[in-house]
Amino acid sequence: MALHRVNTDDYSEQLRQKAERLRAAYSDYTDLEPELFPSPPIHYRLRAEFKMWQEGGRVDYAMYRQGEYKKPFVIKEFTVGAELINDLMPKVLEAVNASELLRKRLFSTEFLTTLSNDALITLIYHKKLDEAWEAEARALQDKLGFPILGRSRKQKVVLERDYVTEQLQIGDRTYSYKQVEGSFTQPNGEICRSMIRWAKDVCEGSEGDLLELYCGNGNFTIPLCEHFDKVLATEISKVSVNAAQENIRANGVSNLNIVRLSSEEFTQAIDKVRPFRRLKDIDLDSYDFSTVLVDPPRAGLDADTCAMVARFPRILYISCNPETQLENLEELSKTHRVERFALFDQFPYTDHTESGILLVRK
């Protein structure tokens, strides 16, 4: 099925089939039916990236069909994209085609939006961006009312800002997030909100402290802080760590420390294999970790991190790849049992499935 156009009549059945496949895949570890968190059927993607197809002195948005990377097809509609993306797409395209400076050697266009109606448009080129380009881009920025970012090889031109701000209502609180262009953010805003709500429900009534690995910009970390005495979170991306620090201040969180470490480095640190200067102000022995939250990349947890995580009484494991989560479960199930099980439909109309499990020590 084309990513730009969907048949919403099929959605309920597709989700049911995903749930059945996931339940069957995890049947060796739990008899639970997965808690289902459906996506909005349309306008759910907050991020979009398009190739810009140049032909006959005109440029159009284009995508590739899977396996046909030399045959782009022009995008005329993008119903899976956020409404704000759909509103901005024709306006950007009209302006680019009206200006040779903006059109020439334009290679790609990216849209980053939020549920709270903020947006950033990134124009990516195969040419050096000069003052003349900047003047045209500023005029477009003023017309759109949203910031423009220019990129080329070894060049990044920030006209106003390189981030968007998200406001997520969770229960009776609103959480504010700075989301920087080029860093990871959840692509489906409503599913992101569902994931946070589920994680908060899982952690309701927790005691002790929380450790989080792969924390990104604090997406889960900040809302979960109210459920624990203290929280320590790690993230390897410097951009994400800097954004997380700003998000901590923006949300008035006082019991959270974020450190720039990979999961492998943190495993070495907690095992006292070697010291890290980045932990010089953190006393690991002062933490009473009762729960660990992991949301790793598609490769899942490496063997050493998996072994380290298995020491915790409670493991909250959110995964964008059930296959590698199952590989980790083969080890973690030796010491823990599955108490909660969830399916988050981040990408409807595809085979992609995201899952969440709460593991409790046997």
Automatic annotation (TrEMBL):
<feature type="binding site">
    <location>
        <position position="219"/>
    </location>
    <ligand>
        <name>S-adenosyl-L-methionine</name>
    </ligand>
</feature>
<feature type="binding site">
    <location>
        <position position="214"/>
    </location>
    <ligand>
        <name>S-adenosyl-L-methionine</name>
    </ligand>
</feature>
<feature type="binding site">
    <location>
        <position position="186"/>
    </location>
    <ligand>
        <name>S-adenosyl-L-methionine</name>
    </ligand>
</feature>
<comment type="function">
    <text>Dual-specificity methyltransferase that catalyzes the formation of 5-methyluridine at position 54 (m5U54) in all tRNAs, and that of position 341 (m5U341) in tmRNA (transfer-mRNA).</text>
</comment>
<dbReference type="InterPro" id="IPR010280">
    <property type="entry name" value="U5_MeTrfase_fam"/>
</dbReference>
<keyword id="KW-0819">tRNA processing</keyword>
<feature type="binding site">
    <location>
        <position position="295"/>
    </location>
    <ligand>
        <name>S-adenosyl-L-methionine</name>
    </ligand>
</feature>
<dbReference type="Pfam" id="PF05958">
    <property type="entry name" value="tRNA_U5-meth_tr"/>
</dbReference>
<keyword id="KW-0808">Transferase</keyword>
<keyword id="KW-0489">Methyltransferase</keyword>
<protein>
    <recommendedName>
        <fullName>tRNA/tmRNA (uracil-C(5))-methyltransferase</fullName>
        <ecNumber>2.1.1.35</ecNumber>
    </recommendedName>
</protein>
<keyword id="KW-0949">S-adenosyl-L-methionine</keyword>
<dbReference type="InterPro" id="IPR030391">
    <property type="entry name" value="MeTrfase_TrmA_CS"/>
</dbReference>
<feature type="active site" description="Nucleophile">
    <location>
        <position position="320"/>
    </location>
</feature>
<feature type="binding site">
    <location>
        <position position="235"/>
    </location>
    <ligand>
        <name>S-adenosyl-L-methionine</name>
    </ligand>
</feature>
<feature type="active site">
    <location>
        <position position="320"/>
    </location>
</feature>
<feature type="active site" description="Proton acceptor">
    <location>
        <position position="354"/>
    </location>
</feature>
<dbReference type="GO" id="GO:0030697">
    <property type="term" value="F:tRNA (uracil(54)-C5)-methyltransferase activity, S-adenosyl methionine-dependent"/>
</dbReference>
<dbReference type="InterPro" id="IPR029063">
    <property type="entry name" value="SAM-dependent_MTases_sf"/>
</dbReference>
<dbReference type="InterPro" id="IPR011869">
    <property type="entry name" value="TrmA_MeTrfase"/>
</dbReference>
<dbReference type="GO" id="GO:0032259">
    <property type="term" value="P:methylation"/>
</dbReference>
<comment type="similarity">
    <text>Belongs to the class I-like SAM-binding methyltransferase superfamily. RNA M5U methyltransferase family. TrmA subfamily.</text>
</comment>
<dbReference type="InterPro" id="IPR030390">
    <property type="entry name" value="MeTrfase_TrmA_AS"/>
</dbReference>
